[in-house]
Design goal:
This protein is an alpha+beta fold and 108 residues long. The protein is 26% helix and 30% strand. It has one domain (5-80). It has helices spanning 42-57, 81-88, 103-106; strands at residues 5-14, 20-23, 29-30, 61-72, 75-78. The chain has a 5-stranded antiparallel β-sheet with strand order 3-2-1-4-5.
Length: 108
Amino acid sequence: MTGHKTGKILTANRLIDGVSVWFSANSEWVEDIREGFVARHEEAVKALEAAGAEAQADNRVVDANLIDVVEGEGGLRAIRLRERIRAEGPTIAYLPNSKPADAKTRAA
């Protein structure tokens, strides 16, 4: 991953429906990881931690935590497979008329 920028992003599950969400630069919870705010220094990381704690205390989200991401030619992407699945969807078709996430998107 030479030349790619890394950072941290705040993720959680929205309390009302369980959907995976990411914290944006506009202080909103969004459903697309590409819209999430990437923290690249300690001060920004601490601000994200505080925002996650506040959202959990207000019962807007559960399991708020920071994850590692990388920004490359294809955009923003979670480093860990678990988080990529949360962001991109399942790797196999599991419902009628569903299909797995695009193989090109999943390639590491």
